[in-house]
Amino acid sequence: MAGPLEQFTIHNVTDPLFTIGNHPIAVTNSAIFMLGAVAISSVLLLAGAGKGAMIPGRVQALAEIFYEFIGNMVRDNVGSAGRKYFPFIFSLFIFTLFGNVLGLMPYGFTFTSHIAVTFFMAASIFLAVTLIGLFKHGLRFFSLFFPHGAPLFTAPILIPIELVSYLSRPISLSVRLFANMTVGHVLLKVLAGFVVALGIFGAVPLAVLVAITALELLVAVLQAYIFTILSCIYLNDALHLH
Amino acid sequence: MPVSALRASGWGAILAILPAAARAEGGMPQFDVSTFPSQIFWLVVSFALLYVLMSWLVLPRIGHTIEAREAKIQSDLDAAQKANDAARVAAEAQRKALAEARGKASATLRQTTDAAAAETTASLAAIGEKLAGKIGEAERRIAEQRAQALAGLSSLAAEIAGSVLGKLVGTVDGTQVAAKVAAAVETARKGTK
Q1: What is B127-191 written as a DSSP string?
Q2: A104 touches chain B (CB under 8 A)
Q3: Reported pTM
Q4: B 156-185 residues with CB below 8 A of A?
Q5: Which of A76, A89, B6, B116 would staple B11 via disulfide (CB 3.0–4.6 Å)?
Q6: A59 occurs within a structural domain
Q7: Which of A30, A49, A50 lies at the smallest CB-CB distance from B42?
Q8: How many contacts does A have with B, using Cβ atoms within 8 A?
Q9: pLDDT of residue A46
């Protein structure tokens, strides 16, 4: 039987299409699930946005729920200045959500369980947010590293702490998503191994497996939410400082 | 930081129960650096595609629909408010008109009743007067006839008495008899009264 980590293996589905630098780029199982997440979510949301009926049908209601959910999240956490980042935040949520949930499907692959993906996303967000803050506030942006109103003599302690905490944001953001997804899938796989190994008594881990699958579905949605809302909070820090 | 986050997520516990073989095979596929360029390439491509689709096609349409719906609801609410106000004004006007009409009607009624009552009183008075006149006339005539009858009675009595006396005693002085009879009649009348 395959080991619990084998589900994370990335393999090429096609021959390499081209190379970037020295790296051959082929269509992989990860790529299929990324593009699949984009295709499924786009079809769903385009269908929901298509008619624009006054009284929404089911698909339109779903699309509008997503829209208003992220719209409120951006408004509550970033304010009106976050309006122009709404499409990005919305895409971020949809991408992570569909990536997490599609990974729970049988034979699925979870591209968000790869640190390369989550760290690239988190680092890009971190970099973009930092640049936005620098462009908007210039050097005043660095007041972010010294809490407003703290006594001046605490600066030698506070500034390094704030700086480390700021710089660790992309790491915590990416590892949180990656680790949650990986651990959940490993746990499911290990439990599934017990079901086979225990024969008739495998019913017990099977029941646990059902419960854990429900839990993982919750985690998948929750982690997409957390990833998105933290991005909003970081953006808000850059736009409004403290 | 990553280490503590991993541990916090229970990663260490999971690692501990992994079969040794899996780890011996070269560790986690997540740390296979050779897959990174391909993953990042597809991530950029698919996310860019999603972002373009969302920001160009999906989000403006949904936003437009929601705004149109809110505008529609607001205009409907405004129209309802306006209609409600108009209805209230109309109800007020109607109430006023009704009260006015009621007042006018009761005034007319009172006036008519008063006029009818006055007419009745007047005609009753006229009739009463006429009746009183007739009664007075009748009484006067009765009294007259009575007096006439009474006067006739005393002269009749004197005539009867004169003729009776003439038959009995021969000639009689008519005037004397008449006076006496008249006195007697007078006495008798007084006695009967």
Answers
A1: HHHHHHHHHHHHHHHHHHHHHHHHHHHHHHHHHHHHHHHHHHHS---HHHHHHHHHHHHHHHHHH
A2: no
A3: 0.74
A4: none
A5: B6
A6: yes
A7: A30
A8: 180
A9: 94
Interface touch B1/A168, C-beta < 8 Å: yes
Tens digit of each residue's pLDDT (9 = 90 or more) over A125-171: 999 999 999 999 988 888 888 877 888 888 888 899 999 999 999 99
Q: What is the pLDDT of residues A13-42, one digit of tens each?
A: 998 999 888 889 999 999 999 999 999 999
**Residue B69 near chain A (CB below 8 Å):** yes
Question: How many domains is chain A built from?
Answer: 1
* Whether the complex's predicted ipTM surpasses the cut of 0.90: yes
Q: Which residue range(s) make up the domain with A132?
A: 6-240
3 state SS of B41: helix
Name the residue ranges covered by the structural domains of chain B: 48-137+139-192
Tokens 């009749």 belong to which residue?
A: B156
Reading the block at residue B4, the tokens are 């503590």
The percentage of chain A sitting over the pLDDT mark of 70, rounded to a whole number, equals: 99
Nearest to A114 among B39, B55, B63 (CB): B39
Residue of A nearest to B21 (CA): A3
Residue A202 lies in a domain: yes
Within 8 A of A172 by CB-CB distance, chain B residues are 1, 5
- When CB atoms are compared, the residue of B30, B46, B58 closest to A45 is B58
H-assigned helices in chain A:
29-50, 58-77, 86-102, 115-137, 155-167, 169-197, 203-240
pLDDT attached to residue B4:
47
